[in-house]
Design brief:
By secondary structure, the protein is an all-alpha fold. It is 89% helix and 0% strand. 0% of the residues are buried.
């Protein structure tokens, strides 16, 4: 599985976990417990880290594509 796809899937799973925490409190018509709030906070931090990693990986892919395009252009200009 490609790295970016895996990161995005992990992000989606963490968002689902966050929703479950919210839905649990909503179903029971109560505020989130300290444990739920802590879990939510950790999930949010993990999502932020994944977002930064996804952005870095996408930027790297874009740079690779631009480099390949430049090399192709240079090679076709040499012919």
């Amino acid at each position: 599985m490609n790295f970016l796809k895996k990161l995005k899937e992990d992000r989606g799973l963490k968002i689902k976990e966050m929703r479950k925490l919210i839905e649990q409190a909503e179903t029971e018509t109560r505020a989130m417990t300290e444990e739920e709030l802590e879990a939510f906070k950790k999930l949010k931090e993990a999502i932020n880290a994944l977002d930064q990693t996804i952005k870095a990986a996408e930027d790297t892919e874009d740079a690779k594509e631009k480099e390949a395009d430049t090399e192709d252009s240079e090679k076709s200009g040499e012919s």
